[in-house]
Fold this sequence. Notes:
two-stranded antiparallel ribbon; 18 helices; 68% helix
Amino acid sequence: MSHNLQIQRLLIKRETLTAPDDKIALIKQAINLADAHNDIEWGFDLRLELIRDEKDTSRCDESFPAFTWILDTYDRNPDAFDESEFLWEYKWMLGAARRNSSISLEQIESIAEDYKVRLQRNGYSLRPYYAAKTHLAFFLDDMKAAKTYIELRDKELRDDMANCHACELDDNIELELRLGNFDKALAVGNEMLTKKVTCTHMPFSAYCACIKYFHKAGEMKRALEYFNKAEEDLAALDDTSQVSEIGNMIRFLTDYDREKAWNYFAQYAHWSVDSEEYLDFLFSVSLLPLLSEEGSRTMQVSPSLSWYRADDTYKLDELYNYYADRAKILANKFDARNGNDYFNRQLAEA
């Protein structure tokens, strides 16, 4: 049987699957077949599919090497491929680089500038580039820069490479929430928050941001309103990429309905397994107020968790120390990389 036919059969089987991990396993088999036959056309397309599948998880283990291969292969064979075919995935990889503490700010800036060059030479506006710079400014807790980049973003043409309207509204909401302009946040994001415009994770992600900042400000009634909206949408989510949003929900429930918070923790803790460092940090920090109880607790959790016990009984101080230690390690790594203390300040607040 030819490798082409084998790959096509794997792709047909992939279409019957729903779990991202199962899809990724099949795509990796297909990539191995393509590479064994030096088939760069299949290797190129299959790696893009791999990146798209892993986007639905909290991890970014396979995507970095896959995208490095794509860039290298394109740059060595520019006439064989269309560069615009992977610019959308490039945007995702730029975000993943930001969330990895081992990649320096200088490297991130270099990646961003390379992305900018590729956008321009393919005739696209810089709208997605400024969106990426906005996300980095949020990451560094630089609200002045975030505001500037959003203004620059809005001056650029919206084209096929730009983020969708719902995702851009999410950035607008994030800015105003972090500035404490709550009423303005709800006003600027009204179209998305009321589902007139939506995206894969929108408005769920925005609801969870509202939960976080309203709860932090002590506005429990407003936080509950958006928790209820988020909980309704959560039932339709079939991927683990929203693990930090789940953390926001657990943090709110810790003060509103502690027993329900424990149920959420038991149900979703495994979403953070092997997650990207930034997501791991946010989730770990959100758990600390819940895990600060004394004694033990019986609960059923996924065996994939490193702290899983077959008897389903857990000492809470051990769980607290596990997540507190993890959060501290990551806070120190990110702050050392970023040159500020933003991550340790978030940990201290918890």
